[in-house]
Amino acid sequence: MSPPDWAKHAVFYQIFPDRFARSGAVSAQENTALKPWSAPPEEQGFQGGDLYGIADRLDYLDALGVTALYLNPIFASAANHRYHTYDYYEVDPLLGGNDALRTLLDATHARGMRVVLDGVFNHASRGFWPFHHVLENGPDSPYVDWFKIEDWPLRPYAADRPHNYAAWHDIPALPELNTDHPPVRDFLFDVARHWVDFGIDGWRLDVPREIETDGFWEDFRGVVKDADPDAYLVGEIWDEAPAWLQGDRFDGLMNYPLLDITLGFFGAGSLRDYSKAHLTFDPLDAPAFARELERLLALYDWEAACAQLNLLDSHDMARAQWILNDHTAALRQAVLFLMTMPGAPCIYYGDEIGLSAAGDPHCREAFPRDEADWDTDLLSFYQSATALRHRREVLRTGRVEVLHADARALVLRRTLGDTTALVAFNAGPESAQVDLEAGALPDSPLAPAWPPSAEASLPVASSSMTLSLSGRETRVWTTA
After folding, report:
1. Where does the pLDDT of residue 480 fall: very low under 50, low under 70, confident under 90, or very high at 90 and above?
2. Fewest 10 Å CB contacts: which of 117, 256, 426, 467?
3. Would you state the pLDDT for residue 31?
4. What would the mean pLDDT of 300-306 be, rounded to a whole number?
5. What residues does each domain of the chain span?
6. Which superfamily, per CATH, for 398-478?
7. What is the pLDDT of residue 462?
8. What are the residue numbers of the active site?
């Protein structure tokens, strides 16, 4: 089964719900001690962002060019990131509960937007009711096989002795679910279907490789696609994983390998000394970048390549602008690269207004309320970049060829049917001259598409030509 067509054309926006927008509509907040908005993100506690707040800001997201939301976990949890789920059937009351999700889904769908939720199915929390049942009843609990327990009595809170059950990353607060046990699988599949039936448009699946039960993800896909064949399934896998995109598990992956080389190329010369998981952010010149780009694209079937979730950062790592040492010109080129590549670009909330921070928890700061704290020039750039992508289908699903890669200059050709686009980057500070053979140009004139103020067209393919690119310049031309 192919990925849903809408995902190939989407521009995603990732939201960490506690930190995006506080509506004031959540009645529980009136008697709840919340942290001040914009409190340091490394502090424990909740700042009170909610789903009504997201719904209130859909005009802003519309203007940004966003067509799909990816929300970090929203189900009831005792953690501000909500990866510690204790009730999979209830939206956290601090986010507004199930009614707030209903409001958000209705409002987004009325605008043609989609909503993808974060599914955390490898582990739950100590507050998850079956785990609590086992804690109270020991081996006499009928839910004892829902977890991987080593001995008795259960020790989830003992300060002087280690916990005695399987837990994600050996964190006692995150007991792993025993997905080899059929009732656990049935429960998780029911959760997945329940929320698709409720109206969500897909799942982003947390740490899917941690679930090693044979057939689990194939069966999960079957349940979700039976409920909605157009639902999008994207997995959090940090390295290359073509086996996961064969049509039997996921539609796309969070494309961290592309993120790595993108920041390595456009940020060469300004990168901080930073790494995360498989990401090393090594400086790359244009030939090395082109080789890696071609290799990554060749790993996947074309339909899968077009449904990847392409990103520059996320809640699990430092923000892109921080990694680039606040080199905004490099960030702009990296954004334009994503906007002109196959795969759905995903903007991490606040990147578009200049948020720059180190890794978790610093990258989970509150979205500034005061526009005086925004980089409005950067926001205007993001709006123009998403508009470019939406206007030109060839930039979303056209085939990719490297025409030129030398030093810091890269030229790509995108083709879709009779439509051609040329995308040229000079990622260096000095001007560059790029020679193109006559055969590189189509028989139709290439009109300027970027920058928005550009006027110069390229001639037809009668002879070779030289492109002149100033330092840090990006140009895009397309046929009609």
Report:
1. confident
2. 467
3. 66
4. 97
5. 5-122+179-391, 398-478
6. Golgi alpha-mannosidase II (2.60.40.1180)
7. 62
8. 206, 236
- Mean pLDDT, the chain, integer: 96
pLDDT band at 460 (very low <50, low <70, confident <90, very high): low
Q: Are 51 and 100 in contact (CB under 8 A)?
A: yes
24: left (phi over 0), alpha (psi -120 to 50) or beta: left
Q: Which CATH class is domain 5-122+179-391?
A: alpha beta
Query: Tens digits of per-residue pLDDT, 224-256?
Result: 999 999 999 999 999 999 999 999 999 999 999
**Mean pLDDT, residues 61-65 taken together:** 98
Joined together, the tokens standing for residue 294 give: 């071609």
437: confidence class by pLDDT, cuts 50, 70, 90: confident
